[in-house]
Specification:
2 copies of one chain form a homodimer. The first copy, chain A, has 2 domains: 170 residues, Rossmann fold (3-Layer(aba) Sandwich), CATH 3.40.50; 110 residues, Orthogonal Bundle (6-phosphogluconate dehydrogenase C-terminal fold), CATH 1.10.3660.10. Helix content of chain A is 54%, strand content 13%. Chain A is elongated, with a radius of gyration of 21 Å. The first copy, chain A, has 12 helices and 8 strands. The first copy, chain A, is α/β, with parallel strands linked by helices. In chain A, helix 1 links the parallel strand 1 and strand 2.
């Protein structure tokens, strides 16, 4: 963190904006530049205090940067690196913040060979909300940020990136890109697919019977909250992480089949056993989070 | 509500206890008796202020009652009615608070013919928590309570029960028992099965890889909250409402299949369309709740 003076953030939305706010809060002499295509959004980021200045010139915007943060939807990461590659100083650290890692890390490492040091990161502190207007300096406080390490990862860059995420309040977990993709499919991507499916089913019922909205309460609201997430971002994530995600969905379908069979057989004691085990699993995980 | 002076509550847990607290708060001259088998629990309910007195004698406990509230797991409702039937005055109103209605309402009406007036009710204000220690007078404030009406329902009793639920802050919705069961399968019972299945799957992964608990965050926590609900109560509900519930689960599986197919085909625009529609459905329902 010590050597980082100039930071360029490509894409100043919820995540990019929150990093800008956090960095400027903890390190007064840091200079943060916002880069993007939409000057209205960039001006909003400046007004919010997430960046000190901004530009739509990608090459110009990164030429003094010690650290470049690419905070755009996963499908756009490579495209962004290509747009700014001519401005990158040798040895500059480049990170992304995307939810899928395998393919992105491989491509970014290839594109940056001999130029910047790429380190993949995934701050697990999103929200169903988007845009710099929802950004806040404390977004990462107490959350987990996964950093990916590969055989190509520069150790010094990795340490600097770890220090950066710790500085903004995150607990760092280092994984290889493939393990990352498998685990987040299980605890995040699967949830989003389940929520979208549930919101879609209840929506159809609601169109047939308005009373649905009078009785859809706590559990419906909680279980569909993330179905209001950005459809574009999530379509990208689902497609980019499809191998791990499709496996998670299939495993989930097997769980449903087991429960259906027990319900159909009216096997109360087996159902109680399953439910108790599920309950205990959740309690174990919640305890570990503390 | 005017004529109701003596209320007996069978089963003084979260729901029974909260009704007791609410009634005693809004109507100072009401006398609430708690009935159950466990004197430790009954004494706790008295200490919490949910009942004025209590007894383990079911017949004795209801003999002065103008209103009997049966607040036990759905599978026990008929059994409770049988236990207290010899104490019921002719014309006494008897309600339950269970989450499944079809079979229960039919049986209760049959058992009470010529004795009490049965009205099925389902306050949708539960919680994953249980027990009188979690009861509160405001539990029903702003929630929906479904009241079931059948050809056998006494109109005066129905009006009194409606007034009762309104008095404790609930919005009342009147449905026939079958429609009730179909709709709550969709917006509540399905959610519980989905949450139990998810908690169970993530639990298995957690036992294989401890890092799971470091990255399971907001969406996991929200989507599995209700997996900590009482396993016994939910095994009963799933079995009692199995016809409607199994249909809901099958419909849900179809939704998952559609999403899997689109993800597998990398059909981004179709996925975005599906996600946007799901998002809009949720926004419509949340808007109607207000």
């Amino acid at each position: 963190m010590k050597k980082i003076k100039n930071v360029s953030i490509v894409g100043v939305g919820l995540i990019g904006g929150s990093i800008g706010l956090a960095l400027r809060k903890i390190k007064r002499n840091i200079r943060v530049t916002g880069i993007g295509r939409n000057t209205v959004k960039l001006a909003r980021a400046k007004k919010a205090g997430a960046v000190e200045k901004f530009t739509t010139d990608f090459v110009e915007g990164v030429k003094d940067a010690d650290l470049i943060i690419i905070a755009v939807p996963v499908s756009k990461t490579s495209e962004m690196i290509k747009k700014l590659i001519d401005g990158i100083k040798t040895g500059t650290i480049v990170i992304d913040v995307g939810s899928v890692k395998g393919k992105v890390v491989k491509e970014a490492e290839r594109l940056l060979t001999g130029k910047g040091h790429f380190v993949g990161t995934h701050p697990m502190a999103g929200s169903e909300r988007t845009g710099v207007e929802n950004a806040k300096a404390g977004l990462f406080q107490g959350s987990t940020c996964i950093i990916t390490e590969t055989r190509k990862t520069d150790k010094e860059a990795l340490n600097a990136v770890r220090a950066l995420w710790k500085a903004v309040g995150a607990n760092v977990l280092i994984l290889d890109p493939e393990t990352h993709d498998r685990l987040v499919a299980e605890v995040s991507h699967l949830n989003h697919v389940l929520a979208f499916a549930l919101a879609s089913q209840v929506g159809e019922n609601h169109r047939r019977n308005e009373d649905i909205s009078k009785i859809a309460a706590g559990s419906y609201n909680d279980m569909t909250r993330i179905a209001t997430s950005s459809s574009g971002i999530w379509a990208d994530i689902c497609i980019d992480n499809r191998v791990a995600l499709l496996k998670s969905i299939s495993n989930y379908e097997k769980k449903l089949t087991i429960l259906k069979t027990l319900i159909n057989k009216k096997d109360k004691s087996a159902l109680i056993k399953k439910f108790d085990r599920a309950k205990k699993s959740r309690e174990d995980i919640i305890r570990c989070q503390k």
